[in-house]
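Try this one yourself first.
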């Protein structure tokens, strides 16, 4: 596998894993030789791609490999708060993906089966959440004892700080202090005393500044209070450790299920990683072909059909796809052609596609590709010279081939690069032919890249063996990297020499040394290859024309769809306008009838008006055009019509969604949503609606807040409530009326606005200092 760079494939695959446990699975992936297992893993990758197509951006985000933490808890270790947060987020990720895949039991059975294997772990998330907040702080109500300790600690600190503040505010003390402040050293509250006044205050010295000019001292009058605070801090620490120990014991109790959850998440994410890598490669699921149940003395029946296959590690923009087809009666391919022409790349492409397919990975080839499941893939590719073992390049190749002959069976695939090279050409050619015959006698599917003409002749005359060549462009003196199956490579030495300007007499003399039959064969191969090149170029032009035609068809269909949507919108607009006008006419006629009755007009006048009214009332608008139901995806910005607020979809099911509105999460039905309009239009619509609204519950808050007549505390409380409501309703601007007066209410209002996170900016309304205009943040 190292010779085929399969480990580089695994490294790229691991890059698509979301956390370390699935990354580990990716790096440990090995090809399977079991046909049923290969089929299962291929189907799993296909299902993962389908799931991610239907759920773009879906991940197991938040998962961690917590197995080491769980094992530590089993050994009576007390976990840290960050460890508990990782465990909680992993459990939430497992719960979410299990719920999501539960909707795909029939459609995606392999994925759903993986999700179903994740054990339900009840109570652990709530137990951790009861103790820790989202920032990893232990909550006051984590235990009754902790709540009491923290309450006492808060009171003790308040008394201590109050007494210290009085000290640093004392006019007699201020002159001997470096600064009139209270600070801390070693957990004790101290004051900064100037060193030259040492002894003026009875105190305990805890620290000295680097310059020596300041002593940080604890006055004796506060020692008892400091001691009380310190004792309560130690009690708090001990109680928090006790709580974390109890929580660690809960983790240990459910260790087996927690480890199974991580393994289940890793398996699902591993399938997602395969899907992500396949999408990046533009890969396809190959058809896996079983071996025949009965074997005879003939070839055992391997099949390789690769259409437009690409080397997975080469740039897809520049790599040249190849077609490799070995049908049932063909089980050896001899590839010839110039150096750097693509023979080795062709061998590696075939080998990597087989290894990837048997590892459950989709292959970079067209969907109609098919492969047998080989018992092993053996390769002798590259320079394996070993100085330590005193082996030459030739010796290293022979030693590797001997090992392959001992290990490979009739269901194996063997790839040999430059077979017989590195020694005398005549002996090397004879050895290459003998080795190829040995592999054929063992019924082993074999690919050989070589320069020896004798192997081309052998391939042409031997049943089950096929010639192939890599194409060379004589005009540009460059290989094209196209693999031509069915034709041997021609000799290009004389043609290249002539193109490079070698004397014609020398070229002619060399040509005279070659048998005429060989020259005729080369000329015939040249004609065939030129015809193939022309055919390929014409086919490419036809395919490009077809692609352009399909693109134009899709564009036209999109335009027609847009025209139809516009037509329906115009009809809806006209229908709504007609309905409004009809309502107005009906109201006017009803009013006119009442006035005529009141004025005592003749009956025939009333009857004529009544008939006219009935004619109008009998008028019916045509039924509205069928609407295409809106579709929504995770992350869409939507308008929740029931509360007239915008938010983002965070969870999506068949009949219900969860929408994040500000700090709130709201459950709603699909038909209660509509896609959010663009921001300028939304702002105009929101302002218009709010100017008409009455500010009652269920609608947006009023745009004006009048604080006049309120005391400062009540006014600030009303301001805070209005800012909260405005932020949740995405109101862009509000006017706060505080009046002029003494200016105290105005200053208190603006001071509160400066510290409010929902406020982007505020300003006086023109010269009227009695009104402040507030611009809300994130609107």
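Now uncover the answer:
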């Amino acid at each position: 596998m190292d010779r085929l760079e399969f480990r580089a494939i695994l490294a790229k695959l691991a890059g698509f894993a979301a956390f370390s446990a699935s990354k580990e699975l990716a790096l440990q992936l090995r090809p399977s030789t079991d046909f049923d297992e290969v089929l299962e893993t291929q189907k799993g990758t296909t299902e993962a791609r389908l799931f991610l197509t239907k759920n773009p951006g879906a991940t197991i985000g938040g998962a961690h490999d917590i197995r080491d933490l769980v094992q530590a808890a089993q050994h009576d270790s007390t976990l840290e708060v960050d460890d508990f947060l990782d465990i909680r987020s992993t459990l939430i990720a497992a719960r979410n993906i299990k719920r999501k895949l539960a909707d795909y039991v029939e459609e995606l059975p392999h994925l759903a089966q993986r999700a179903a294997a994740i054990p339900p772990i009840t109570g652990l998330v709530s137990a951790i959440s009861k103790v820790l907040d989202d920032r990893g702080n232990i909550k006051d109500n984590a235990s009754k004892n902790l709540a009491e300790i923290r309450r006492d600690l808060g009171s003790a600190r308040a008394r201590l700080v109050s007494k210290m503040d009085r000290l640093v505010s004392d006019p007699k003390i201020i002159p001997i202090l470096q600064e009139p402040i209270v600070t801390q050293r070693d957990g004790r509250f101290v004051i900064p005393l100037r060193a030259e006044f040492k002894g003026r205050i009875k105190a305990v010295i805890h620290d000295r500044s680097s310059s020596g000019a300041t002593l940080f001292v604890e006055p004796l009058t506060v020692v008892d209070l400091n001691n009380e605070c310190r004792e309560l801090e130690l009690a708090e620490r001990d109680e928090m450790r006790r709580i974390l120990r109890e929580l660690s014991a809960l983790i240990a109790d459910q260790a087996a299920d927690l480890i199974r959850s991580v393994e289940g998440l890793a398996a699902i994410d591993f399938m997602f990683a395969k899907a992500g890598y396949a999408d990046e490669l533009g890969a396809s699921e190959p058809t896996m072909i079983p071996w025949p149940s009965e074997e005879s003395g003939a070839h055992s029946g391997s099949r390789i059909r690769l259409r437009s296959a690409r080397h997975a590690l080469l740039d897809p923009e520049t790599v040249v796809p190849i077609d490799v087809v070995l049908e049932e009666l063909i089980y050896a391919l001899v590839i010839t052609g110039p150096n750097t022409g693509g023979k080795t790349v062709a061998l590696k492409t075939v080998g990597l596609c087989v290894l990837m397919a048997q590892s459950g990975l989709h292959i970079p080839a067209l969907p109609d590709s098919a492969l047998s499941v080989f018992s092993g893939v053996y390769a002798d590719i590259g320079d394996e010279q070993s100085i330590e073992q005193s082996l030459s390049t030739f010796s290293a190749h022979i030693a590797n081939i001997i090992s392959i002959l001992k290990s490979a069976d009739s269901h194996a695939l063997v790839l040999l690069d430059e077979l017989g090279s590195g020694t005398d050409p005549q002996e090397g050619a004879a050895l290459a032919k003998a080795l190829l015959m040995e592999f054929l006698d063992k019924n082993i599917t074999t690919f050989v890249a070589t320069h020896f003409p004798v192997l081309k002749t052998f391939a042409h005359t031997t049943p089950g063996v096929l010639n192939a060549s890599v194409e060379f462009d004589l005009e540009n003196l460059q290989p094209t990297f196209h693999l031509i199956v069915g034709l041997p490579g021609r000799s290009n030495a004389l043609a290249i020499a002539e193109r490079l300007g070698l004397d014609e007499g020398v070229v002619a003399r060399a040509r005279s040394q070659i048998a005429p039959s060989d020259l005729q064969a080369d000329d015939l191969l040249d004609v065939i290859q030129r015809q193939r090149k022309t055919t390929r170029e014409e086919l490419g032009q036809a395919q490009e024309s077809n692609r352009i035609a399909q693109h134009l068809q899709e564009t036209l269909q999109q335009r027609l769809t847009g025209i139809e949507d516009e037509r329906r919108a115009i009809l809806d607009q006209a229908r709504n306008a007609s309905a409004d006008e009809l309502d107005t006419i009906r109201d006017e006629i009803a009013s006119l009838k009442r006035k005529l009755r009141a004025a005592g007009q003749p009956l025939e006048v009333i009857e004529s008006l009544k008939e006219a009214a009935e004619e109008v009332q009998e008028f019916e608008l045509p039924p509205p055009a069928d609407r295409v139901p809106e579709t929504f995806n995770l992350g869409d910005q939507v308008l929740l019509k029931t509360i007239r607020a915008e938010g983002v979809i965070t969870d999506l099911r068949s009949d219900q969604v969860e929408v994040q509105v500000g700090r709130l999460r709201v459950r709603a039905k699909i038909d209660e949503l509509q896609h959010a309009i663009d921001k300028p239009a939304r702002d105009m619509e929101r302002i218009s609606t709010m100017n008409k609204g009455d500010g009652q519950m269920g609608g947006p808050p009023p745009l004006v807040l009048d604080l006049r007549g309120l005391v400062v505390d009540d006014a600030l409380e009303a301001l805070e409530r209005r800012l909260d409501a405005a932020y949740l309703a995405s109101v862009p601007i509000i006017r706060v009326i505080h009046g002029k007066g003494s200016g105290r209410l105005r200053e208190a209002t603006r001071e509160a606005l400066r510290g409010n996170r929902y406020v982007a900016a505020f300003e006086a309304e023109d010269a009227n200092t009695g009104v402040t205009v507030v611009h809300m943040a994130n609107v």
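Discussion: The mean pLDDT is 83. The first strand starts at residue 183 and ends at 185.
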